[in-house]
Amino acid sequence: MLIWAGLGNPGTKYAGNRHNIGFMALERIAQDHGFSPWKRSFQGLISEGRLGGEKILLLKPETFMNLSGQSVGEAMRFHKLTPAELTVFHDELDIAPGKVRLKEGGGHAGHNGLRSIHQHVGEAYARVRLGIGHPGHKDKVASYVLNDFAKSEQDWLDDMMRGLSDGAADLAAGEGAKFLNKVALRTAPPRSSTGTEGPKAPRARPEPKEKAVAEPVTAAEDPRTALQKLADRFR
After folding, report:
1. Is 19 annotated as catalytic?
2. On the chain, which terminus has fewer CB atoms closer than 10 Å, C or N?
């Protein structure tokens, strides 16, 4: 079994927040892949299903973001799992909106949800980092992540969710590159084949035609007598 934990805050008040993008990701995967209805367990909401040959437990902690590790730790201890069998989906300020990155282990970079998970299970787990962009100043971060996605962001957000769902089976199989490729096909689709041709070679310009220039006639080439030449000049 693998545990995929999405981070966010519980309740309708926070449902559309940027900070809740981890919840959104799991909800889309559960919906598209026929997972079980959500039910309460491990201080959160869980849904179970299979992706390829792997059994997956989706977990949305309801302990609020700063205590996410309580819920995640409880689920892992119950199923006797190691950090290597945990993947966390979370918002990432330092990645451009709509971009997705994978990371194995490492620090929490100040993310309070990850900080809590570090405290309960260690740092050797995988993360799916979901880019939401940065507001530009650290003083604006709290209000930025706790506000809903703007209407102008809905298109890329939907593309990201579709991509995560498309690549879910690859992620479960440990095929990180294939997973990211599936996401990219949604978030940055390739151009059509008609637009991939290189620049056409410039049309060759015709060589300018040379003007005919009359060459002087030598005396040897002109059989006329001097009198005929003089007469011809006055005709």
Report:
1. yes
2. C
